[in-house]
Every structure is written in C-alpha cells, then in structure tokens.
Amino acid sequence: MTLGRDPANVLRAIGMHPKYKGYAYVHHILSLTQQRPEYMYHLTTQLYPRVAQRFGATQTSVERNIRFAIKRTWESGNKSELRRLFCVYDVKWIPTNSEFISVLTEAITNDRMIDSIQLAMLL
User: Fold this and answer.
1) CA 30 to CA 10: how far, in whole Å?
2) Per the CB 3.0–4.6 Å rule, which of 11, 42, 72, 100 could disulfide with 95?
3) Which three-class secondary structure state does DSSP give residue 113?
4) CA dist., res. 82 & res. 59, Å (int)
5) Could you give the 3-state DSSP secondary structure of residue 104?
6) Can you give the pTM of this predicted structure?
7) For the chain, which residues score pLDDT lower than 70?
8) According to the 3-state scheme, what is the secondary structure of 33-97?
C-alpha cells in the first residue's frame, strides 16, 4: 500500500483518529519533518516548541497528547498497517513519540523518493 506524501494519508491508514489533539500535533510534525527530516532528531528541542506555539499549548501537553493519540491508535487502529510500518508481529509494544514520528516520517519520505524515481524513469 502506497501511503502518499500527505501526512493525513499515513495517519488515516494506521487508524489514528482526528478527534485527538495529538492527531493535529503529529500531523503538523510530519508536515515539518517531511520538508526537513533532520527535525525528527530534535523532537523536544525544536518540534515540540513549534507545535506548542502554533496551537497555543504547552510543550508538556503536546508531548502528553501525542503519547495518548499513539496509545489509542496502537490499541484500536489498523493493526495490519501498524505491523507493516513498524515491522512488529505483536502490537502490544507501544512506540515512544520519537520512534512513532521517525517511522512515519520515513514512510512519507520513502514514498516521495519512490515517486521521484518513477517520475525520472518516465522522463
């Protein structure tokens, strides 16, 4: 399954529900890391402050809401897609915020790289 470049496609595919504040925060973070993947190495120092400022929240609440959205997605999301993306057989293990964002960033950027390769082959 190709997830495409849109972070919302990835989040929908894994079953993260937009009703959680963490969904909006993860979506924004994925938009930022899609443009600059190196940001995922600066989650707490660069990304949480940006998200907190954009949404009028505290960095602590950003982290907590992301963790909650990940937990809920892991409990009731699309298990087969979670297994595929995270290469796990047992979805009882819940990834950390940084692990989750890293894997989803990789999924988005790899799809973009594949699209670029396919486009180059057509030219």
Assistant:
1) 10
2) 100
3) helix
4) 26
5) helix
6) 0.83
7) 1-4, 88-91, 111-123
8) HHHCHHHHHHHHHHHHHHHHHHHCCCHHHHHHHHHHHHHHHHHHCCHHHHHHHHCCCCCCCCCCH
Catalogue all structural domains in the chain, each as residue range(s) with its CATH number: 7-122 (1.10.10.10)
The Cα 22–Cα 27 span in angstroms is 8
Hunting for tokens 């600066």 — which residue is that? 42
The one-character DSSP state at 19 is T
6: left (phi over 0), alpha (psi -120 to 50) or beta: beta
Q: Measured on CA atoms in the order 121, 104, 78, 57, is the torsion positive or negative?
A: negative
Burial 82-119 (b: 16+ CB within 10 A, else e): beebbeeeeeeeebebeebbbbbbebbbebeeeeeeee
